[in-house]
Amino acid sequence: MKKLISTLLLLCAVSSVMAQDIPQTEKSLTTAKKKRTHRIDREINSNKFVFKGESMMGLTVSYGTLESEDSDLGLIIDNINLRGSMFTIKPHYGYFYRDNQAIGVRLGYTYADGTLDKIGLNLGEANDVNLSLGDLGYNNRAYSAAIYHRSYMSLDKKGRFGLFAEWELSGQMGRSQFNYQSEGSAKRTISENYRLRLGFAPGLAVYIFPNVCAGVSFGLGGLQYNHIRQTDGEGNFIGKRDFSKLRFGLNLAQINIGVNVHLWNKKKDK
Predict the structure, then answer these.
(1) CA 175, 259, 101, 263 torsion: positive or negative?
(2) Deepest in the core among 8, 18, 267, 270, taking most CB within 10 A?
């Protein structure tokens, strides 16, 4: 009888120990799992580049010229006299509805002008092809409006250097004029251009002053629709064209450098 009681007490003691070890084992496994999860989470979004409630105003301006001396078109083009210039200005305003996330509007104006006084095309005696052109002129003015969404990611804990990705939905309308000589008289063709575009542009940003941020963005293409309507100098309809394209790749003509001024710097309060 004593042996039976001793055996029962021993079994109860073993069961009690096992019951205490199971929660501890589950607790240790849960703790280890949390530790593994914490090591995997790099906490990239915990660094704030811009805080919720801030506003920013920015401006992008570009100007470029092209002349005959700047071109190297080979030996087949002789006596080229080319001059051209392009000016673009794009102000914008954005509001950060949450940390590192902004939505805003952007306006734009572009002016381009170019003249080609004379150009000679010589393919050599074997081909017997010689062509001479001159008195060509081109002029274009375009206005645009867009809405955009920009997301920042800080590269350091102090939020001085960052990357951003921007989606932009823009509409543009413009008028271009092409002047030329035909049968001894001056002619011109006028084109009305309309464009709707959804584009993507990543970029780099850095605070050069506490409230001033400089950035550079690279256009990587997107979806675009164009409508062109042409008339002659007297306003007679010539024709129209509608086309669309989907293209992704680096566009050297869409490398923009700009400066943003933050109207409320919350970094001072942190």
Answers:
(1) negative
(2) 267
Cβ neighbour number for residue 219 with a 10 Å cutoff: 20
Please report, as a single letter, which amino acid is at residue 88. Answer: T
CA-wise closest residue to 203 among 216, 214, 212, 185: 216
pLDDT band at residue 164 using 50, 70 and 90 as cut-offs:
very high
Please state, in angstroms and rounded to a whole number, the distance separating the CA atoms of residues 207 and 170: 27
Instruction: Report CA 221 to chain centroid distance, whole Å.
Output: 8
**Distance, CA of 117 to CA of 136 (rounded, Å):** 6
Q: Which two tokens stand for residue 133?
A: 């052109």
8 Å CB contact between 60 and 90: yes
What's the chain look like in SS3? CHHHHHHHHHHHHHHHHHHHHHHHHHHHHHHHHHHHHHHHCCCHHHCCCCCCCCEEEEEEEEEEEEEHHHCCCCCCEEEEEEEEEEEEEEEEEEEEEECCEEEEEEEEEEEEEEEEEEEEEECCCCCCCEEEEEEEEEEEEEEEEEEEEEEEEECCCCCCEEEEEEEEEEEEEEEEEEEEEECCEEEEEEEEEEEEEEEEEEEEEEEEECCEEEEEEECCEEEEEEEEEEEECCCCEEEEEEEEEEEECCCHHHEEEEEEEECCCHHHHC
**Quick one: which of 179, 176, 180 has its CA closest to 228?**
176
CA–CA dist 270, 265 (Å, integer): 10
Q: What is the pLDDT of residues 198-219, one digit of tens each?
A: 999 999 999 999 889 999 998 8
User: pTM, whole model, 2 decimals?
Assistant: 0.69
